[in-house]
Amino acid sequence: MTRKEKDWVIKVQMVQLQSENPHLDDYYYQEYYQKLEKKQTDEELLGRRSKFESLKLVTPYIQKAEAYESVVRIEGSLGQVAVSTCFSPRRAIDAVPHGSQDQETGAASSQRLQVLARIEKMFLQLLEIEGQKDGLPQPCSSEQWNNQIEKLFQALRTPEQNTLEEAADGFLQVLSVRKGKALVARLLPLLPQDRAVSLLLAITHHLPLLVRRDVADQALQMLFKPLGKCISHLTFHELLQGLQGLMLFPPGSSERPVTLVLQNQFGISLLYALLSHGEQLVSLESSLEEPSSDHRAWTDMVVLIAWEIAQMPTASLAEPLAFPSNLLPLFCHHVDKPLVQHLEARME
């Protein structure tokens, strides 16, 4: 290659690194470098290190020409290269859809930045809590640790938590990001029982929405194991409340939300685990004291889910992460034998 050709290739590559909004396009690097600068400044003030300029990635700004030829001709090359594509590759890259065809507005971009910043802040708090977990022999330290966990739990809600809907929306925004799912998965085992159950019910209530948002990441599975431990703490009434929302037709839709849940691996796994726990509660003698209306609602719900599974094509039914041993006996108690045999064939 001639020097001119090399310069042209380098110019194209450097243009790709440019951004009009680096804090949005390269959020994690910008956050990392800000923390690094702060740490170095603190160490310099304490005299732990001498002052020096740290390295930072700087990309030269290349002025875009207002007028240029429509085609670049490189001697010895095959074909012709359009300047509009090669001069500004970022434009071509951004044209590729990333899970959604909707173009983000300025407000949406700003909101996403706020969510990412919240997750980063909460993750730092979680790391601090996990670091203190092994050294809590004193009661005062244990109380302080519990207060930190409660503070982190409250941080999952939006700052302007005027209503339950706003609080739930703030939690869903965190779960819309892969790192947010990892945050919740690591936080769940540390939470008190009532707090963990409240998150479980929120996830169950909004399960169809979370499944739709997780199509690209497929990261909800990391929540299954910690949520499975929370399910055992659900009361029969709480279990019904969590599942009933999956049976109701959304406005303007002819499909129950449970249909979408059954087509997702995390969704069907969580649903099966909830049904299994419900069967255990019903089989206990203490559960006989529950109101009969709850038992009728439970029976109707099990029958509806059985019919949804039976009507769904086998290829559409997701493979669960775990299959409870008491699931088929549960259906045997509430539906007829031919349907049970049909379900058994589907679940093999």
Q: What keyword list fits this structure?
A:
348 residues, mainly alpha, 3 domains, two-stranded antiparallel sheet, 62% helix, globular
Main β sheet profile: 2 strands, antiparallel
Poorly predicted tracts of residues: 87-101, 136-140
Structural class: mainly alpha
User: What percent of the residues sit in helical stretches (DSSP H or I)?
Assistant: 55-70%
Count every beta strand, where a strand is a DSSP E run of 2 or more residues.
Answer: 2
Q: pLDDT average, as an integer?
A: 79
* Overall geometric form: globular
Strand order in space, largest sheet: 1-2
What is the domain total for the residues? 3
Task: Please state the CA-atom Rg, rounded to the nearest Å.
Answer: 27 Å
Number of helices: 18
Question: Approximately what portion of the residues adopt beta-strand conformation?
Answer: under 5%
**SSE topology string:** HHHEEHHHHHHHHHHHHHHH
Cα distance spanning the termini: 61 Å
Structure description:
The protein has 348 residues and is an all-alpha fold. The chain has 3 domains: 3-52 and 65-94, no CATH class; 106-190, no CATH class; 206-348. The chain has helices at 3-17, 22-25, 27-45, 83-86, 89-94, 106-132, 139-155, 164-175, 178-187, 193-205, 207-213, 224-231, 236-244, 257-262, 265-283, 292-311, 327-334, 337-347; strands at 71-72, 81-82. It has a two-stranded antiparallel ribbon with strand order 1-2. Helix 6 (106-132) packs antiparallel against helix 7 (139-155), helix 12 (224-231) packs parallel to helix 15 (265-283) and helix 16 packs across helix 18 (337-347). Residues 73-210 form the mRNA decay factor PAT1 domain. Its main location: cytoplasm. One of its GO terms (biological process) is deadenylation-dependent decapping of nuclear-transcribed mRNA.
